[in-house]
Amino acid sequence: MPSVPRKSVSLADNFLSFVNGAPTPFHAVRSAIELLSDAGFEKIKESDAWSHKVKAGGRYYLTRNTTSLVAFAVGKRWKPGNSVAMIGAHTDSPCLRIKPVSNKQSDGFIQVGVETYGGGIWHTWFDRDLGVAGRAIVKTGDGSFAQRLIKIDKPILRIPTLAIHLDRQETFSFGKETQLLPIAGLVAAELNRTGQKAKQSGSPENEATKDGFEPLKALSERHHPYIVQLIADEAGVRPADVVDFELVLYDTQKACIGGLNDELIFSARLDNLMMSFCSVTGLIESLSSPSALEDESSIRLIALFDHEEIGSQTAQGADSNLLPAILRRLSVLPSSSETASDLSYDTVGGSEVDISTAFEQTLSTSFLISADMAHSVHPNYPAKHEADHRPEMNKGVVIKINANARYATNSPGIVLLQEVARRAGSESGVPLQLFVVRNDSPCGSTIGPMLSAALGTRTLDLGNPQLSMHSIRETGGVHDIEHAIKLFESFFAHFSHLEKNIIVD
């Protein structure tokens, strides 16, 4: 039997459950909420007043658009202007999204119009068994509109390749608009189905409202009626009550553990659900002791953002006001010995903190870890990596560095992370690796640089190494899940002490 540490296997299994249940950011946030709720986190809203709700020693989470999530725990020794230990990750991955009008037919086939989201390796989407998932907005019995999460967990779509006998290409190329179209079935089969159903209760088209003017065509006209029917079944409503939806395609093949010694993970969406999962779990693990927040003077926070793969410039992206607005509100939270009314004074509790500058003081002493997956050295393309910076799977978390600030890492951050890694776990600590791109290679980026610029907060970029980033099926290391969780747990547990000892300004 392969010798795999029990803890690594257990955490990897937990991650498999997380990623298999999260084909979209909507589902990823829901799965994160389930973990946080089980750990005693309380839901709050941005629209709430927090002054009498958020308390020192409390644990809270909130969402925006239900695709981005922020969760935090307030130390019992917190004072306004103190630091916040933060980890940021993202919930989205490259995918194909169903167009607003997707109803297509060609040569006897039913097809579904899709648009590309992010920078996917689109040729990997051919010949895969594809389901659809996302959210639908439905009309409820009282006339209001509600969100329902949708996950049609069966292969209803497929993008077929052209047989090699009909086109002997040296390299596989295709038109993304005309040849990246999934088939959903045969027109003849659908006609047979609807003909039988019409005799019983009528087709979904006949259920559309006929109460006068409709600004848009009915959903069952813009999309194939049977797809609308499947969405309605999943949402538990009539087809006529499905008002709109945001659905993407996903690979129905489950994530799994592989390799000769069960040391690898084969999965979709490793970038970046692995870092999202590790962030949530690391925060929860840092609070596992009942006394975890007793001597804590900081706030421990994670932020999982949507839309990183398309630039983050949306209301729920990292380049929005989401994190700055939350930090501004947290920076003036009263300590456990103060009340909200005390904050009307110039200083708090006789301390040096001026409430008018508490936000700026918090930013200047806080730290952000930007957690996004990294590139493992590829055994078939080793020359693509810089000779002295070749991260390997299961050898530790990768610190990402770039002289042109595509990553936000600098020396003080590396010193801090080394001290955090040294203190991680009961015995061995957590190994770290370093990565820079070759001078003749382009470099990707993360939410790290944009958040460090917006906040002025010290930031470091890191991630677990993986292969095939942005493929429909990626490869990562089993042990690296434990490495990242232990590192994040240690970061939260030790930051408030360590940050005082790394003096720069």
Helix tally equals 11
Strand order of the largest sheet: 1-2-3-13-4-14-18-16-17
* Percent in strands: 15-25%
What's the number of extended β-strand segments? 20
Largest sheet: 9 strands, mixed
Structural class: alpha/beta
Helix percent reads: 25-40%
Question: Rg to the nearest angstrom?
Answer: 25 Å
Name the quaternary structure: single chain
Distance between the termini: 54 Å
Mean pLDDT score: 93
**Looking at the structure, what is the overall shape?**
globular
Low-confidence stretches: 198-208, 344-350
Structure description:
With 505 residues, the protein is α/β, with parallel strands linked by helices. 27% of the residues lie in helices and 24% in strands. It contains eleven helices and 20 strands. The strands form four sheets. The chain has a nine-stranded mixed beta sheet, with helices on both faces. A five-stranded mixed beta sheet has the order 11-12-20-19-15. Strands 5-6-9 form a three-stranded antiparallel beta sheet. A hairpin with a 2-residue loop joins β5 (95-106) and β6 (109-117). α2 (25-38) packs parallel to α6 (270-286) and α7 packs across α8 (358-365). The longest helix is centred in the last third of the chain and has 21 residues, at 478-498. It is globular and about 70 Å long. The model is unreliable at 198-208 and 344-350 (pLDDT under 50).
